[in-house]
Structures are given as C-alpha cells and as structure tokens.
Amino acid sequence: MNRKIYNILMVGVGGQGIITASDIFALAALIHGFDAKKSEIHGMSQRGGSVFSHVRFGEKVHSPVIARGEVDILLSLEEMETLRWLAYANKKSLVVVSKTRIKPAMVSDYPEDMEQQLGKSFPNLLMVDPGVLSKRIENEKFFNVSLLGLIAPLLPISIQAWEKAIGQKVPLHFLEQNLNAFKQGSLYYDSIKKEVNS
Amino acid sequence: MEKLLLSGNEAIALGAYEAGAIVGTGYPGTPSSEILEALTSYPGVYTEWSVNEKVAFEVALGAVLAGARTLVTMKHVGLNVAADPLFTSSYTGIKAGLVIVTADDPQIHSSQNEQDNRNYAAAAKIPMLEPADSQEAKDFTELAFVLSERYDTPVLLRTTTRISHSMTVVTKGKNPDRSHKAQGFKRNREKYVMIPAHARARHSIVEQRMRNMTQDSNNLAVNRMELADKRIGIITSGVSYTYVKEVLPEASVLKLGMVYPLPEKLIREFAEYAEKLIIVEELDPFFELRIKAMGLAAQGKQHLPLVGELSPDTIRSGLKAVVPQELFAQGSAAAQQKLSSAYTPPPRPPALCPGCPHRTVFTILKKLDLIVTGDIGCYTLGVLPPFSAMDTCVEMGGSVGMAQGMEAALGSAYNHNTVAVIGDSTFAHSGVTGLINAAYNKHRSVIIVLDNETTAMTGMQPNPLSGQRINKETTVKLDYLKLAEAMGIKTENVHIVDAYAKAQVEEAITASLNKRELSLIVVQGPCIILKRKRKKA
Known about the structure:
The structure holds two protein chains of two kinds.
Chain A: E1 6-13, H1 18-32, E2 35-40, E3 50-58, E4 73-76, H2 79-84, E5 94-98, H3 114-121, E6 125-128, H4 130-136, H5 143-151, H6 159-169, H7 175-197
Parallel strand pairs in A: 1-4, 4-5, 5-6
Antiparallel strand pairs in A: 1-3, 2-3
Chain B: E1 3-7, H1 8-18, E2 23-26, H2 34-40, E3 46-49, H3 53-65, E4 70-75, H4 76-81, H5 83-92, E5 98-104, H6 118-124, E6 128-129, H7 134-151, E7 155-160, H8 161-165, E8 167-171, H9 189-192, H10 196-216, E9 224-226, E10 229-236, H11 238-247, E11 251-255, E12 258-260, H12 264-273, E13 276-280, H13 286-293, H14 312-319, H15 358-368, E14 371-373, H16 398-410, E15 418-423, H17 424-440, E16 446-451, H18 480-487, E17 494-498, H19 502-515, E18 519-524, H20 528-536
Parallel strand pairs in B: 2-3, 2-4, 4-5, 5-7, 6-7, 10-11, 10-13, 14-15, 15-16, 16-18, 17-18
Antiparallel strand pairs in B: 1-8, 6-12, 9-11
C-alpha cells in the first residue's frame, strides 16, 4: 500500500451537514481497509459558528488533525469560510467550493467579489453550483452527500466502501436518496473533469 | 474481529461495557456528554444524569461500595464540583472498580477555563490514565477498572476534547465481561467512615498504595519506550503523542499511558538512553516539574506554550531551536507553497438560534440596562451582541450567589438594578442552594430562571425540570412554586411567564425589582432545537 496519508478538510457553517458527511467519509476509508481518523469540535461552536472536520486516511495515521499546508482537498460548503482555512492548503490543494453564501451575523453585506477573492488565493479551485447539483438530487438535504460523490473519483476508496458507509450512517428511509445524491455528485464531477485537470 | 470508527467518548462507553460496568452516572458537560449517552445504549447498565457532578460522584461511590463496577463522567470543571468526595474516596478506596472520567478542554472550545486536571490526580493521590486515541480510550477504561480493583482505589481517566471528539479505529473486544454482579454493601467502618481516627490510618494506606503504584508503573505496558534516534528523547502522553509521531517520526519517545504516578525508574532509563530530554505536554508543566524534581535535565515549557492546545504545527515551530533539523518529518513539498489572501473572513461567533426562547429576556435586560449576573449554558451567549446583556459568568450556579454579594456590598445603598440569570439544568445543578441562601439571609435578589426544558448547549440532555430521565423514561418534574414557597419566598413573588410573552416578562422583571423583595421569575419556552426534534419523533 502507498504510504501517502490523504488529508481532507471539510468546512462550512453549523447545520450544513459537515459532521455527517465526514462521518461517512472516514467510515468509507475504514471499510476500504485504510487506517482513518477524523477530528472536529462540537459544543458551543455549533450555534451558527464555523464548522470544520479534518479527515485523514492512509496506511497508518497518527495525528487526528491535519498540519498546516498539508491539505489535499479542501471541501467548502460556504464561500467565505474557504478563506478561513487558507493556511491548511497549499498551491497544489484542490479546493472545491459550493457557491453558497451564508452571511455572518456581524456583517452588513456579503462581499460581492468573493469568487474573485477565492480565484486569487487558490490556484486549483473548483466552484460548484449548488443549484445545478441540487436539481439532480431529490432533496437539498442530501447536498453534503453529493459533494462526497463529487470528490470520490479523486480518492482511492471503492464505490462499494462509500455505499456501505452511507448505508451505515443515514436512516434507512433516506438511503436510496442519499445513494442517488452520491452518484449524482460523481456524475457532476465527470461532467466538469476537464476544468479540474486543466 | 469487528473494526469500528468510534469517538473517544463512544470508545470509553464500550470499554466500560466490556469491563463489566453495571452503573454509570454523570452530569453533561462538553466534551464528556456523549459517554453516558453511549453507555445508556448497552443492555444491563443502569445509567443516570445526576443533578450535578458531586451527586453523580456520590451515587457512583455508593454503587461501588455496594459492589457494582461503576463509571462516572464529567468535564474538567465538573470535577471541581465533585472534588470533595473525590479526595476522600482516595481514602475509603472502593469495593468494585470505580473509574472517573475527566474530559479536559485545552483551547477552551466550550468551557470557562482550561484547567489541567492531571493536577487533581496528584492532589487527591489517585492514579490517572490518559489515552491517545479511541482504541486506547477503550483499552484504558478496561485497564482502569482492573487497576481500581487491584489497588483498591478510584482511577481517573483523563481525556481532552481532541480525544473525546475525534473518531479513530477501534477493534471490538471478543468477550465482554458481563458476569459481574453487585453483592450489596458490607460494613467496614474503619474503611468507610472517615472520622479522624479512621482517616489517619487510611492516609498511611493511601501513601503506601501510591508508592506501590509508582514502583509497579515501571512495568505497566501502557508506559512504553519507543527507542530510536539517541539525540532526542521525547516524553509525552495523550493526543500530544500522536502529534510527536507525526512531526518527529525518528525521535525516541517515552509514551506515558499512566500520567500519575510517574514511572520513575523507566524515566531514568529513558534519560540514560537519550542525550536530550524534551517534555511535550499540553497546558501545565506537570511531567516537567516532576521529572526535574527527580534531578534530571529536561526541557519543555521554555519551547512550548502553557496556553491552549498543541498541534503538529506548534510542536514543529516550538522545537525547531532544540531538535536537529533532520529529525523532523519532511512534510510534502507542496506544503511549503504557502497561499495568501487579501481578505480575512469576519468571525462567526456562536449565537442564540433564530426563534430561541431566551432572546426575549435578553432584549428586555438590554433595554432596562440592568446588571446581569450570568451562568453556564446557551444563554451565556446573551453577553454577545446584539444583546450584550450579561456582566458575569464564572461557574455553574454562580449567578445566584453573586447577585446577592453585589447587594450585600452596597447595603442600604443598593439600588435594585441587578438580576441573576440561570438556565433550568444549571438551576437544578447548583442554583437551588444559592436560592436557599438568598431566602435564609434575607437578600432581596431577583432570580430569573430561563427554562427551556432541556440541557441545550451540551446536546439536549434531560434534567430535573424536563420530566424525563436519560433513557427517556417519564419522571417527576421539579415544581418551582412549591420549591420557592418551601424556601420562604412569598407566593406572590414567584412569576412563571411564557418566554414569548414579551410584555409579561418585562412586567415581571420591573415589578420584582420595584418590590424590593426576593423574587423568582421562571421564563418558560422549550428550546427551539428540542421542539424540532419532538416534531420529527
């Protein structure tokens, strides 16, 4: 097995389903046969605050948190939040950002030029239109899982392991919809792959 | 064997189950709350959310003296509340295993301080284990029960937020020991009745026990040398160990699984091997002071912070000056390519939820510009804009007593501009005693209980004001009016008002302040998250 440790940082705002998505992610890595760890903070930070989850997997993972500059994929569910975690990324990191804007309580207007700011900071940026993706899944609630599907083709975790992990983490009556959301995410990735590779 | 991905908290619950625990008690507190919730899901274990940590500890101590292996859980500051029975339980010892979980919160993610509870182990003369991942959280819980019974002592298990809330791989045990049964209490007055004559004798036994454990800890498998490069020897424990392995993969490491008492012989052996000893520990120089007191040259806090969590990054930058460069992990070449941005996102401080029942009262308190002694819970967020309506917050229950002190300080010059604000769970935890004090000492305080029917901040645990137990079973609900009357508060000075009825809430507050008599105002409205959950169910 390759000695590489994969570092994925998922970020956003409370209530976006980041914790559930990272639960599925780390479990899929374990089911595939990797060592896996994930770390996040619950408690006071949940009440509308920034949310993050570090997911690490590979042959043997020590630290549950990612060192600065070592992120392979920064998956952000909120535009502005992406920049908060800049120090963890590097010029090669793939930065996947959902074009979702949630205005912080203290701010009067969301900065108009956010997409431009992101473009300036992250050389390897992939902006995802949540509208396009949401149309293909039955319920916006599963958007977090569709983003896992979107990055899945870039990772050495089998589809079977992903599907098994989803099966263990979501309620049975939502399983089909979650599996579909995951699949639609992967299909969406295929449709935009050219952008990523360029 | 079945491999699971568990949080440290879930792993502790599994460990307690596999070790034969039949009683679990605790009081919710981040980052410890999920342990008891997970333990409740196992068959054959009695669990309860006790009214506070002291009571949880006492129920646990009674249970072990009656022969039941017991787990008691709390956050670091919770152990302050339980410190009284903690210290003397060291003297009484146990009958069946007693494991006390203290979940510390370096970085103060969700607490009022970042005290290092390793100090309690030394102060109370109770052994302490500290796991570095979920597998160890499970294994050390089981070991803690074994050591507890072997040495007739309670055992502390210390986690930190990063251990409690990180998920790592755990292999489930093959044969959980579920045969353990409580035999009932057997008298032993010299051991369990701590009058001075008995306690003096027990103290000597405690000191002998700690000497024995110090000796035996040299051979304990959880204290482990990983000998490699001779130039640098790192002594560390808990999550810091994982950071050291990440950043300094070639250095020699002494990993301490038992953080008190320290294995002195093993530490000397390690010091012989390594040319330079470096202690990597979060918060206090707990190992460092003890290792230096052994006469060994060691470095630690001159390079690493006393404040906050460590991380792979803080260890790398802190030790750059003392560790040869070639011992550091290279890191990816890409990681050197730093990114920059002209824009810094504004902070997103936590806030009261939209529709939260606490919002009304803080809007009113702000408008009236009152001095507000506050307490611990979601409602502590009343200190932040847009409300900015809280002036003190120290510990659980503190609001009630502090309001009385502000009144006492001024005597007849007090101008009735102060109210105490406390949540329902916090009120039951330790606000009640403060209220008895107010009635007894003729204070004229105005105490406002914000009752949202749950312990919201820590994740919706039921409490004595919820009418529900940890296992969702229905139970009695504390009656505010009868409680207040029994304390001697006049019936007409008890106001129970709807949290969303703004005019009534304001009227109750201003009328109580104007009346200049001890008043209890209960502002009732279920937590908005709880309401949503109930709808779903």
